[in-house]
Amino acid sequence: MRTQVSVILPIHNAEPWLEECLKSVLQQDFEGSMELSVFNDASKDKSMAIVEKWKMKLEGSGIPVVIGGHNSPSPRGVGYSKNQAIAQSSGSYLCFLDSDDVMMPQRVRLQLDAAALHPTSIIGCQVRREPPNSMERYTRWINQLEPDQLLTQVFTSNGPTVIMPTWFCSRAWFSHVGPFSEGGRGVPEDLLFFYEHLRKGGGVVRVDQSLLLYRYHPSAATHYILEYAGPQDESRMGRRHTIWTHRVRFLEERVLPHWATFTIWNAGRQGRRLYRSLTAGARRKVVAFCDVDENKIKKGFYCYEDSQERPKPRVPILHFRAAQPPFVICVKLDLTGGAFEDNLRSLHLQEGRNFLHFS
């Protein structure tokens, strides 16, 4: 019989966390056939010695372990490693796992049940953070999005609405969408795959149980690509710019063709940056900025000084109650003590149809 589930585990210098990660594979309560596919991306620590030790334990419990990798001087990146781990595996379903995370015992069983019902979806789950208070706003967003928001909030700086370490999908669907980009460190391979998944009509489903311990630490790969990541050195700023550009182009591709005009909610830095980043055709659809800041509203308009158009575009700045939907919202959620959310709710709009979040 073909293996039902392959756990996909790329490894690069994972020694501090790997024991706990591999133990969580062994402790799965799934009773079907499961294998572990490990790909070592040029680790220089004792990661592979740990894998070899756990290979005996796992195979002794009926979980075959497939090991691949390379010992080049430099790692080739998360996208390459995931693709290699998938290529050497054989399961009908793929369960993605990061080497610094820990699965709850019911993860594979519950996500397989969901994937069988949703064969063209990426299945995610809720998470528990370690340390518990790390990145609290982001964790709330991961765990509390409503089912329809898993598709409407795909443009925000948070990235995919179900996070990569929780992904579970069929091999057939992965092959239809993938593979991952292999651009190396700093390339948002999960975001690019997620966008392609949506382009091909894929769904997004979250199992509403906490099935993963999701670690936060300075060497996590996520720190090198997400827009909320740490201190801003020049190379990191370049990566942030790359992600911003992907997000803007996806917005222009998926949403703006369906809107004759729209308003940018935020006349401050983020709203103006979005306006400047749009193609000329999309900029012409912007009829106004809106805000609650009286000083910005009193200015009356925003002039795009770098425009090649003559006369230079002058976009009105209105109070949000005077502005017309649909809105592209460039205000970060969960930062104003509920004031922004109350203002938005007072307009009785439908997310996805009358507004979407971009920040």
Helix-strand blueprint:
Elements: E1 5-11, H1 15-26, E2 34-41, H2 47-60, E3 65-70, H3 78-87, E4 93-96, E5 102-103, H4 107-117, E6 121-130, H5 136-144, H6 149-152, E7 168-170, H7 171-177, H8 189-199, E8 203-215, H9 234-254, E9 262-265, H10 269-277, H11 280-283, E10 286-291, H12 294-299, E11 301-303, E12 314-319, E13 327-329, H13 339-345, E14 355-357
Parallel strand pairs: 1-2, 1-4, 2-3, 6-8, 9-10, 9-13, 10-12, 13-14
Antiparallel strand pairs: 4-7, 5-8, 11-12
Helix pairs in contact: 1-2
CA radius of gyration is 22 Å
> What share of residues are in beta strands?
15-25%
How many β-strand runs?
Answer: 14
For the biggest sheet, the summary is: 6 strands, mixed
Shape field: elongated
**Strands ordered across the widest β-sheet:** 11-12-10-9-13-14
Instruction: Give average pLDDT, whole number.
Output: 93
What assembly state would you assign to the polypeptide chains in this entry? single chain
Main structural class: alpha/beta
Termini, distance in Å? Answer: 47 Å
Given as residue ranges, the uncertain stretches (5+ residues, pLDDT < 50) are 223-234
Helix/strand order: EHEHEHEEHEHHEHHEHEHHEHEEEHE
Secondary structure: helix percent? 25-40%
- How many individual helices? 13
Q: What report would you give on this structure?
A:
With 359 residues, this protein is an alpha/beta fold. It is built from 13 helices and 14 strands. It has helices at residues 15-26, 47-60, 78-87, 107-117, 136-144, 149-152, 171-177, 189-199, 234-254, 269-277, 280-283, 294-299, 339-345; strands at 5-11, 34-41, 65-70, 93-96, 102-103, 121-130, 168-170, 203-215, 262-265, 286-291, 301-303, 314-319, 327-329, 355-357. It has a six-stranded mixed β-sheet. Strand 1, helix 1 and strand 2 (34-41) form a beta-alpha-beta unit. Helix 1 runs parallel beside helix 2 (47-60). The radius of gyration is 22 Å and the shape is elongated. The protein starts with a strand and ends with a strand. Residues 223-234 have low confidence and may be disordered.
